[in-house]
Amino acid sequence: MSKRCLLSALKRLAKSQALAFAMAVATVGWAEVGYGNDAARLATYQTGAGQTNFALSLMPAVPAAVNQASDVVIVVDTSASQTGAYRADSIAALKTLLSGLSEQDRVKLLAVDLEPVELSGGFAAADSAAIEEALATLEKRTPLGSTDMEGLLANLESQFDLGSDRARNVIYIGDGVSKASFLNSNEFGQLTSGLVDSRIAVSSLAIGPDRDVALLAALANRTGGNIYLAGDDPAEAQLGGVGLAKTVRHAVIWPEHVTLPAAMTETFPAAMPPRTDRDTIVVGTLGQAGNFEIKVDGESMANRFRCLGPW
User: Fold this and answer.
1) Burial of 229 (0-12, 13-18, 19+ CB in 10 A)
2) Cα separations (Å) of 28 from 45, 211, 224?
3) pLDDT of residue 303
4) What's the rounded Cα separation, in Å, for the pair 64 and 275?
């Protein structure tokens, strides 16, 4: 990186993207409004006791980071549940994912059951000999044991160079069922907070006879990732691979300050990293109707270190 580019990058570190969503809520039902280039939808429901619950959809109109260089850690579940057609579909989805990544991306391939095992010897290009050899090793690996999702999540930060200016994505292919260790809500919150602090987005392809979709969806929502579901049709797994490759191309707005109106109480999740390719859902209770404005100040890795030329 040139000195001029470095100075430009350092200046951009202090800048955040500001998103604002304005809406007026007068009745129970739907409200769809926008502010600037950003849009929001609000659905409300009044219970028999008179309490108003809401679901808020936030969708920032931020362009996809098409030329964003990413480090992608791909984790394939090789526990005993991933056999037969599920194993074949997982490998097919992985190959589709690899073929959809760009020349700028670097890939690290891991297998996981009781503990994650690195197969590629570090990051390499998706079409490199190192990844081809890692894929061959993965295909020979016998599905055994159970999966420890807590151990996997605790290991993910160590897989990245956190001083790098590249976007960080984790792609998990498996069922998300953690039979080796029970992951409670406090542990999940602590582990995902670390991933958010390190700007690591986790996406999944849920595949297997018994899938913990709730866990994988919460992981995606908490870290700004995405989730795809694969059923009995092999084509669904390959479509999931296509979707995961596209997920890598889209930016995540990492929130630093979120301002919600006082009328919105008991909101969940407390932190909400919006993606540029799907909406982020916030649920809670609404104390009263009125004119509201929601503000999210955050940063995107795509813009954080981008250096604009010519040089």
Assistant:
1) middle
2) 6, 35, 29
3) 53
4) 9
Q: Is the peptide bond before 234 cis (omega within 30 degrees of 0)?
A: no
User: CB pairs under 8 A, 24+ apart, for 122-126?
Assistant: 123/71, 126/98, 126/99, 126/101
3-state secondary structure of 207: coil
CA dist 294 and 261 (Å) reads 7
Within the chain, strands assigned E span 17-25, 30-35, 38-46, 52-59, 70-77, 106-112, 116-118, 167-174, 200-206, 227-229, 253-259, 264-268, 280-286, 290-300
C-alpha span between 130 and 111 (Å, rounded): 15
**pLDDT confidence of residue 159:** 96
Q: Measuring CA to CA, which residue among 194, 179, 176, 172 is closest to residue 110?
A: 172
Q: Report pTM.
A: 0.80
Six-digit token string for 225: 């990732």
* 85 φ, ψ (degrees, to nearest 5): -65, -35
Backbone dihedral region for residue 143 (phi beyond 0: left; psi -120 to 50: alpha; all else: beta): beta
The DSSP H or E segment spanning 139 is: helix 129-140
DSSP state of 105: -
166: helix, strand or coil: coil
All residue ranges of the chain with pLDDT < 50 are 1-17, 20-37, 304-311
Rounded (5°) CA angle 276-279-282: 135
Rounded to an integer, what distance in angstroms lies between the CA atom of residue 284 and that of residue 66?
34
Enter the tokens of residue 130. Answer: 């190192």
